[in-house]
Amino acid sequence: MEHEIKRTQAVDSKYREQRDYLNDLNDKFKYYRAEPQKALLNEQANQQWFIDKKWAVTELVETMPRELATSVFKQYVKKWEKYVLANGSARSANIWLRKRVEKTRVAVSRFPVPIDNLYFESGRKAQANIWCDKCVQIVTECAEKSMSIAETKEFVVEIAKQWGFAVKKSTEQIERQSHECDDEFELRKADELAWFEMLRLLDEQWWLRKIDVAFRQYYEHCQIINGRVHQGSSRYLSCHGLTDFRARKTACEIALSQMLVVNSETGEEMEMSDVVKASIANPELRRNELMLRLRGFENIADENGLIAGFYTLTAPSKFHAYNKRKNGKGAYLNKNYKGASPRTTQTYLCGVWAKARAKLKRLDIEIIGFRVCEPHHDGTPHWHALFFFHPEDEQIIRFVLADYFTQEDRSELNVSDDEFQLWGKIIGGDDSQVDLFDIEKIRESENLIKNVAERIKARFLYEKIDKDKGSATGYLAKYIAKNIDGFKVDDEEGKPANKSAELACGWSSTWRIRQFQQIGGPPVSVWRELRRLEQDKEVAEAKAKAKKEGVKYEPKIRSLIDIQSEHDPVEIARIAADLGNWSMYIEAMGGLFCKRAGFPVGVVYKQVENAYGESVKKLKAVGCSFITMISRSDGWSIVKKNATKEGFDPKASASAALGVLSLTVREQQIIKQGRQLGVSIDGPTARILDAGGSITLKTRVVKGEKRVEKMKMVKTYLDVGGDQLQIWEESVDIDSLHLEYMINGQPDKKGRVNDLQKLREALRERKGNMQILYLDTGWRTTVMVKNSVGAESELTTVQRLEAVQAWADENKVRLIKAKQGGVF
User: Fold this and answer.
1) Which among 33, 239, 207 is positioned nearest to 118, based on CA atoms?
2) Using CA atoms, how far apart are residues 816 and 824, in angstroms rounded to an integer?
3) Which residues lie closer than 8 Å to 515 by C-beta, 6 or more apart?
4) Helical ranges in 535-664 per DSSP H
5) Which segments in the chain show pLDDT lower than 50?
6) How many CB atoms lie within 10 A of CB 704?
7) How far apart are the first and last CA of the chain?
8) What is the DSSP letter of 490?
9) Which residues contact 490 (CB under 8 A, 6 or more apart)?
10) How far apart are CA 602 and CA 671, in angstroms?
11) What is the reported pLDDT for 824?
């Protein structure tokens, strides 16, 4: 008997496992409904499709977000049908999908949790809480074992390493106490610095910020890998990435509009949004300042007899996901692509630049100028640089940069190391290679350099600035404008560049890539602080008078020598900054190639505590060795606007009543979309919808049917570029009861009746007018039920079905048996 029971239990267990597997597979398949209809007419292809589909869906579910995976699956279906109809084999389609999945798997491997857990903002918050708690638990366990803080930190940092997160090193200055010996001081210093670092890992908000950025970059990386970012699709940034960038930008604007900047000492009050518009965060002001600095570099370079060169620096082929077609229309997949993200590519370019600049420093060659980083059509970063240098250094700089930026994968350029060695000897002045009186050898050397430069132009391109064709500033002005606001420039298609500028800014924000960098020269931070200082009375009065009369203020022209004889270094630099004269500012700061240690004026910091209790530097003033000028007053703080302030209507929006800062960006978008659909949504409801849930709007009964109107968020990033609220209606026959789960011993789902007592209650409610729809799936499960006296007895599926049939006959209820696979 015991053997029979065990055998029955084993069979039942097998059936349950098989049933759970099929249910799980069906849950996956319901999102992947595309079918190769023509190919499936062949019976053999039909069988092969079942196997390939199962494999494809499993691979996609494990590596990609659902919306992206379904889109890739549709592409796979088309390729599968194409190759099967052409040659009877789906091998090429499977290889195509496998390569896509392999590259995406590299991106998803950085996450120690299933990617679906990070899809919604609520899920990322939950993960931040979980991993923060893990760190707290480790700290608690280490404290119980009396471990030092430094030792504890090493264990906690391992948690962050599972995500690939790096913890910022503390800059706290630890002072030695008089009674401490060297060993005691080092131990205390290590513990205190470790504590400040560990506090970040114990902060849930730190985890949330890191996870948000990591997931955003992962999602965009998936879009690049799977062909959503390139010429002919969406340049620079995917539709989803652009939507996300706009949402974050809108959230920032909303937050700023709800904040004030208040000085507790003077009582001054300003709108936070006005303060931001007056800062360098304003795109127009940012562009103007960059152009001013660039023009200043050019002016002083001309005065000192320097020449300019324009460089384009690009990463090797393996960093590029797609190549642009020669006709400029569309792009095709790059077979050399290894799955690198734009962030990885930027890290590579920065590493090569660091080596090249170190080489130039060893050669005692000075350069100044600007570097602009912008994306290729597929999001891969490349650099444009404008440098000023002495004429005799031109060829050396050209060779050093060309050498370093083509060292990796040089063979793909059809150039050898021997040719570069020969190039180096030629520009290095090796007499054995070049005879200054041998015209033929000189021409051979020039031809060699020209030939090599032609072959490497895909990676390194140099152009000497010709003053007859245009100024050096004009060369770079286009790239500055098209990466900020598109002011008065056209994009690659001849259209106004404001749209492409938005994409470039979104790309920079998503991948956290610095777009502009000054090379050499005095720091701009000092320049900005100097411009914050008060103007002298005469200049202030002259400017006020010009503004009142509606004319342009013309500053008094004075020589730098006269100014230097009358004022201290801080005032000299302030006058230059106030005049907006970058070249004069360079002279005031020590000259063109002055080292940082030689700058006469610098910024002054004060020590303040950050959120983690460590002392950090905050800008306070500018000064020189004997004078300091305060540029930032104390007492300023950012506060939220008073909701009862005159002119502020808390009922103007659903989010205002809750306080806009308590809602996420997505929740605010959901509330706004609901308002457009005529549905009022509050904060809690928005959070339910954001988490993927649905809500019931209204219920009505029509001719024996209960119709329920529901609403939920439908993610349509890849098709229309954003989330959308969708309203639909479900119909339920209130005269029918579905007994599939009661008969087959499965858990209750969707409120279906699963107990005979409830059947009797339902019969009374319907006054005898009832029919039962059931499905016998064939599973023979055994369940334990309680009889009328409370004793447990064994009841099989067959016995349950017989009980239902007997009850139906007794109560004159009609039983309807559904077909296998029917929908209930």
Assistant:
1) 207
2) 12
3) 372, 373, 374, 483, 484, 504, 508
4) 537-549, 560-566, 569-579, 582-588, 654-658
5) 1-23, 430-434, 643-661, 716-721, 740-754, 779-781, 783-791, 820-824
6) 10
7) 38
8) B
9) 496, 497
10) 49
11) 27
Question: Tokens for 235?
Answer: 């340049």
- What digits encode the pLDDT tens for the residues 97-109? 998 899 888 888 8
Three-state secondary structure call for residue 378: coil
Instruction: Find out whether 196 and 166 touch, Cβ atoms under 8 Å.
Output: no
Catalytic: which of 236, 479, 717, 774? 479
**How far apart are the C-alpha atoms of 356 and 162, rounded to whole Å?**
33
Q: How crowded is residue 203: how many other Cβ atoms within 10 Å of its Cβ?
A: 16
User: What CA–CA distance (Å, rounded) separates 447 from 611?
Assistant: 61
Provide the whole-model pTM.
0.76
Which three-class secondary structure state does DSSP give residue 530?
helix
Torsion of CA 501, 502, 506, 512, to 10 degrees: 40
- Are 219 and 510 a contacting pair, CB within 8 Å? no
Q: How far apart are CA 228 and CA 238, in angstroms?
A: 6
- pLDDT value at residue 179: 84
For residue 195, what are the contacts with CB-CB under 8 A and spacing of at least 6? Answer: 149, 153
Residue 703, CA distances (Å) to 60, 507, 731 in order = 44, 55, 11
Phi/psi at 744 (5° precision) = -95, 10
Assign 696 to helix, strand or coil: strand
Catalytic residue among 462, 475, 741, 774: 475
Element (H, E) at 385: strand 381-389
Active site residue 479: yes
Name the residue type at position 161.
Answer: K
Alpha-carbon torsion (489, 490, 495, 499), positive or negative: negative
pLDDT at 759: 65
Strand partners, 517: 371
Nearest alpha carbon to residue 425 among 457, 402, 449: 449
Write out the H or E segment, with its range, that includes residue 805. helix 797-811
**What kind and span of H or E run contains 372?**
strand 368-375
Assigned token pair, 279: 């800062």
The verdict on whether 21 is a catalytic residue reads: no
Mapping DSSP to helix (H, G, I), strand (E, B) and coil, where does residue 520 land?
Answer: coil
Q: In terms of Cα–Cα distance, which of 27, 25, 24, 33 is closest to 71? A: 33
Q: How far is CA 429 from CA 364, 392, 418, 433, 463, in A?
A: 17, 12, 17, 8, 22
Is 68 within 8 Å of 59 (Cβ atoms)?
Answer: no
Whole-angstrom distance, CA of residue 612 vs CA of residue 193:
11
Here the tokens at position 1 are: 């008997």
Q: What is the pLDDT of residue 318?
A: 95
The residues near 39 (Cβ < 8 Å, ≥ 6 apart) are 45, 49, 80, 81, 84, 85
What are 212's two structure tokens?
A: 């948000």
Alpha carbons 552 and 545: distance in angstroms, whole number: 10
